[in-house]
Fold each of these.
Amino acid sequence: MYPIAHLAVTNLAHNNPIASLIWGNISHWIIDETCSEYRPMNVLMIIYEAIIAISFLLYTKCWWCVLGLLPDVIEAGYVAIKGIEVWNSGELLFWFHKYHGEAIWSFKKTVMVEVILLIIAMLIRR
Ligand SMILES: [Zn+2]
């Protein structure tokens, strides 16, 4: 799943750095394993994700939520070091980032799930 979902769910750790690290990475694994987001990532999707993610961080001031993105940051570093071939071949570092043949979600379904996770996270954190 994309950053918005991970930030929203990591938000439940109440901006505690240790809790955000542990819960953010456990929830990252669960979300990536169960959700098959819209692909391929395109410029529109990157802009959308960046605007919502930055707005979320500025609104909640839950800066430790970024620890929930750690697996994606590590994976991006791995791809940068190993080359784009590992991305194209699917030979990624984390098993939950590998494609297992599941049905790819539409853009609409991906955004709907992210919005639902954002609303749930914001309601729980109130
Ligand atoms: Zn991920």
Amino acid sequence: MDDRNLPPAAPIRSHRRTTAASDKDHELRGSSPGPPSSPREPHPRENRDDDTTLYSATSSSCDLSKVEENHKRQNSEDREDQASKQSVSHATSKFLGTLARCTARLLCYPPRPSGSESADATSDQRDSDPGVEVKDDNDDDDDDASSVASVTSAALRGKIENGRLYAGFGSQEYGMPMDTAEKEKLSLCHTKYFALLDQQRFLAPVGNHPQKILDLGCGTGEWVIDVADMFPTAEVLGVDIAPAQRDWVPPNCQFELDDIEQPWTRKEDSFDFIFARDLLLSVRDWPRLIDQIYRHLKPGGWVELQCISGPIACDDGSLPKDSSLNEFSAMLSSSTKQFGTPIDDPARYADWLRDRGFQHVSKVVHKIPCNPWPRSEKHKLVGAFERGNLATGLEGMVIRLFSRTMGWSPEEVNAFLVDVRTDLKNENYHCYWPYTVVYAQKPGCKPVPSG
Ligand SMILES: C[S@@+](CC[C@H](N)C(=O)[O-])C[C@H]1O[C@@H](n2cnc3c(N)ncnc32)[C@H](O)[C@@H]1O
């Protein structure tokens, strides 16, 4: 996908909403300004009331002076962030990001074969989310009768820890950074998954005309953008605790800052499809999240959860028991458990979905080779992507985790990772990450679309 051709989009908003307005908001996120807007036909949904109330400078939740102040601070934080990320090779991660985008283009993105908001969050609950200032907004009469909140500058800026930038929003700690190096890594993984799933973005049989789609923990938003392109008449919403999404997106695509582990303030029975990918080191209570997903899907709507899981597997005994990689895998299992986000949670997705009442639960476990050791073309390619991902992404995956759970310093983490990286590159070790894809349907008939 070449996003240079995409029209400008509405900026990110917070479901507990942002103070920022339009271009200022882009700048707040420290991203480079997009190209100048070009004249174009308005999209049918562009002038919706909710867009206006959310983004116009007259919105009651908008405070431009705060935005400008945030912007200045953000610029200086960005400089600090850049300077402090010496441990990550920017050149390499940039190269990998570019490689991912080029490969995505080469893979051609073929078309997929056919195949009253419950304002249930009390202000107490919302107040418990650091980084959110809740405001009542009685003027907000969109059908998204959600709470309106300003996101504090600290939440937008994030926080630097061990030389990495982390999200500053959300009630619980997310284990991985959300800085430039991490975003490049997510881009690369987005392409890797496209190759892994035979050029599909998801497997659930959602039909050709879903109307409302939600991506939980959308990261850079590339899945949201691609799916918005696939279904131009659908509204596709991505939510995340980090404002890491791109500025230039299709008009039917929108991003919000939101913590999915807080009570959702969205309309129940309203989504045709809810998707979540790689919510690693993210979710403390999956059954509770699955309950929220269930309640917010329309009857007949689909959920799909995709995630890598651990421990690292090897089917032919080629990985020595005393290898650093084996030790790393065992440490990952115990540390993620201690952190409250066990790495083998994806193995339980299907049971949790069934327990909540979902039907037609399907589960496929793919293999992501750690390097290009397999013979098959597809897995060789996926393994090459994974080698790049692990080369640059391993530190981000564990630096906070090992520091929180084992008290390791960044130096100790990086010293340990030297041998792990060597093992990961060894093509005689036939190792892979299990990658679980589970999709399921909420029972009931799909309502006939109105209009
Ligand atoms: C490994 S990234 C995956 C991003 C994206 N789904 C993808 O596949 O490219 C996990 C994402 O979940 C987000 N996240 C973690 N905890 C969250 C929460 N409680 N609410 C919303 N997003 C969350 C993180 O900020 C991060 O962007």
Amino acid sequence: MGEYGTPSSIIKCTLSKVKFPEVCPVCLDEPFDLVPITVFERKSVARPPVTRADIFSSGPKPNFGRQEPETQSSVLFWIPACAAHMNIVTIKTKAIGALGFFILFYPALFFALAMIRDVRYGGNLLFDLVIFLIIVTVTGGLLAFGFMPRSLQRAIVFDGVNRGENVVLLRIHNDEYRRLFLEQNQSHADIMA
Ligand SMILES: [Zn+2]
């Protein structure tokens, strides 16, 4: 591991001071605009959450979840990116993917059953097969569009953020971008083990 770490190195940075380099994290081109990335807050980024069951018993006990009501807040990061790499997976794209799946599930099932009927009783198997494959392909495309992380979200992966501790943990895939990021945040960013 060099001075600037590897793609899997976890970088710990002061949340209030984090600043992203003025280049695209994917291709290092000049940025076109800022892309908002929402990261949901974790109770603590330093250790896994401790439950009451963990505290009051030594043996394994059923975990009833956390006792105190949890308000999960989020932190918004603005990341400069080029025009080609600006699109990201959001709640909206996920909703489109899920909606597409639910709308197309029954037609797919219908044509799958039609194919079984064609085989048993004779019918236009080829026609039903083609329609079925088209529906499955469209559904797969919508799911990929909805849920597959975009290149920007693979370039910078947020591993956790905590306002109380003023910490953000992230991984940066591109070596050059990671070097730029660490230089720009050198007084308040470190590579963890
Ligand atoms: Zn780019």
